[in-house]
Design brief:
The structure is a homodimer. By secondary structure, chain A is an alpha+beta fold. Chain A has one domain: Transcriptional coactivator/pterin dehydratase (Gyrase A, domain 2, 2-Layer Sandwich). The first copy, chain A, has 3 helices and 4 strands; from the N terminus they run H-E-E-H-E-E-H. Chain A has a 4-stranded antiparallel beta sheet, with helices on one face. In chain A, strand 1 and strand 2 form a beta hairpin. In chain A, helix 1 runs parallel beside helix 3 and helix 2 runs antiparallel to helix 3. The longest helix of chain A is centred in the middle third of the chain and has 17 residues. Chains A and B meet through helix 2 and strand 3 of A and helix 2 and strand 3 of B. Chains A, B: Its EC number is 4.2.1.96.
Chain lengths: ~100, ~100
């Protein structure tokens, strides 16, 4: 699972994420999204839920929180770019909002 | 409490923090510190404890987490620089480690 996404993987796994508000990082083979919540408690509650999944899957985000905003960057450091794990965690983060 | 730190305040409140590993931000009147933990669970546990104090005091950090590192920036946006609240939260964060 931890290999760089193939061209096919990018079409099947990445494309739906890019349609859902994720963007490609300008500098690295990574994806980013900024979530905006009602307040800090909502933002940190999201982070806490996502943290449990990240730890469960042993795949952790780089993320920045400033009051009600959470900016997430996903990359698989072991392979130096995007893997299926990033797509999986991105989908999970989006699902946590619904 | 939410006024810019005076010269006296900087000497009494800020100086001890700078000796404890906090640094002045290069671009803003803010203080920063990077905490390094054993792993993600320890890093996120620290963030969770700090988040509760931040919310209790209605004064929130800007912070970035990448696996076992947490980089914190403290500034009081209402006054555009450092206030006693920043010193208070910085001290609390340091205390959480002891």
């Amino acid at each position: 699972m931890t290999e760089l996404l193939s061209d096919t993987g990018r079409k099947t796994m990445l494309a739906p994420l890019l349609e859902a508000g994720w963007t490609l990082d300008a500098d690295r083979d990574a994806i980013c999204k900024t979530y905006v919540f009602d307040d800090f408690t909502a933002a940190f509650a999201f982070m806490t839920r996502a943290a449990l999944w990240a730890e469960k899957w042993n795949h952790h985000p780089e993320w920045t929180n400033s009051y009600r905003k959470v900016h997430v960057t996903l990359i698989t450091h072991d392979v130096g770019g995007l893997s299926a794990l990033d797509a999986k965690l991105a989908r999970k983060m989006d699902q946590l909002l619904t």
